[in-house]
Structures are given as structure tokens and as C-alpha cells.
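I am writing to request your help with a piece of structural work I have in hand. Here, with my thanks, is the record as I have it:
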Amino acid sequence: LILNFFRSFVVSGVEMASALLLETKFEWKQRWVGIAIAACFLCCIPMRLMDGLLRARMELVSWIYLLIYISICSTIFLFDFGGASSALLLLLGDSILFPSMYQAEALCMGIAQQHAVPGSVLNSEGIVLLKSVLGALGRLFGPTMSRWLIEVGSQDWYAGTQFIIVFSFLVVFRYGVDALLVSSNPPRDAANQQVSESHT
């Protein structure tokens, strides 16, 4: 559930910050800014196709780790490299970060549903409710924080914060979700099969 907050924070922040930077710093027209951001979201389609191909060949947890590592690497493109190419690099980072974060978080939520605790606040319905609340909080604070970092600091401040949040996603997954799978009775392969069937 914390991972859902991180994903919402990062994705909503990237969307707002990219639109702000393209329009004010790089002086793009609003029309082209909207088209560029929409194109970044469309990269979720090839990521979903890649997920279908690789998840059958990789252990679920390994695939999630790979998605997180890809997300971390993509934040490098959010930094200001100077020149006109910096706008294209920013969009490249968005195109990688959007789908990889979404896919990693979606798979983690599948694991959460498989480990729901009946009769508690963390049952299936409770998880869905908490996911909605934390997702809304992430969408509230993400754009606000990103805009503030750009206006008070710089693009690099914003990019550095995104890197920290995505890295925190990795830490929480490693010591939270992955540790849970290792300590649970069903072996990881069984959990992998269950979540894959649930996600499908």
C-alpha cells in the first residue's frame, strides 16, 4: 500500500512537472505539450506486451525488481543536461518511468491481494479502500511537491526527489514485500503462479 502512494506521487509529479517545464522552460505550445505527455502514457502498451512475454520466463519477484531498476535508471533523464535535447531526454525519462512504475506497483498490489487477511482491515475490500486513499494522497502531494521544487529550486531538485522516491520504492519492496514472500509458507514459485493468474 505504501508502494501505491509512491507510484501515485511519482507519476502525478512527473506528469505535472514535465508539462510545466516544457511550457515554461522550453517554451513549447500547450497543444504539443499535451500530445507529448499523452504519447508518454501510451508507452504503457509496449510495456504491457513486454510484461506478457517476460513474466512467463522470469520469476515474478525478479521481474518486479527489473521494473524498479528500470524506473530508477529512467530518473537520470529527468535531470537538466542543458540545451534543446534536454526536453527530449525529459520525455524519454517519462516514457520509461510511467509504464515501469505502473507495472511494478500493479504486480505488488496483486501480491497484496493474495496475502489479504480475512476479517481484518487488510482484507480484500480494505486493501482496495486503502489503495484508493493512499493513491489520492499521492496524486495530491506529487504535483504540489514537484511544482514547488522546480519553482523554489530547479529541475535538478525535482529530478533528485523523484530518484529518492523511486529508490524508496525499491527499499520498501525489498524489506517489505519480498521479505513477506520469503517468510510465507507458499514457496515463491507458487506465489508467482497465483499472482500471475490474479493479474491475468
Notes: The mean pLDDT is 86.
